[in-house]
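Objective 1.3, modelling of assemblies. Example input:
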Amino acid sequence: KAGVTQTPRYLIKTRGQQVTLSCSPISGHRSVSWYQQTPGQGLQFLFEYFSETQRNKGNFPGRFSGRQFSNSRSEMNVSTLELGDSALYLCASSLVIAGGPHEQYFGPGTRLTVT
Amino acid sequence: AQSVTQLGSHVSVSEGALVLLRCNYSSSVPPYLFWYVQYPNQGLQLLLKYTSAATLVKGINGFEAEFKKSETSFHLTKPSAHMSDAAEYFCAVSDIDYGGSQGNLIFGKGTKLSVKP
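Predicted structure (tokens):
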């Protein structure tokens, strides 16, 4: 089974621009979560989508948004980029079945650099 | 609120030596705990998970972890380190399970493991 894929792998943007990152989950996985990883703050949860609905959200400004499509693929968008948005953005997918939280499988990430 | 503390941002061991990476958690409910590994320029790979079925959990690549409720710990061990184990390791706790659905992961700051020949 193919793993979680993220595109693009690397991205360089300028302050003030916007960016869209894409994530394709493992086949059959309906939950997609996004995380930001930086040296200073570590791994921080952005949001989770399930059945095209945002189900949970971390403590990030409204410039960070996302969506999920009917095939479970997800995108996240960052508007008005700031230097501090430079980070590795990781997408993770998981099964959603009864019995509690299940492991999340991560993609390779998108390395965003804002200049 | 759940939280995770990893003691030691860097750990260095010799090849063949015991690996011990420490993780303590804080949770108001029975936790779901995970260990992930991250190699340079890659995403996170799941090593093992604890979901209350057994206190000693075996994972991939010879790693295991023991859940100790009295110590609120979930330390990761491997009897004999290999050079290929050099990576960054993250302990994580799952946020409260709401309605049987997926919660987000709360990660520790990570521990970089170096393995000396």
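Residues 16 and 55 of chain A are 28 Å apart (CA to CA).
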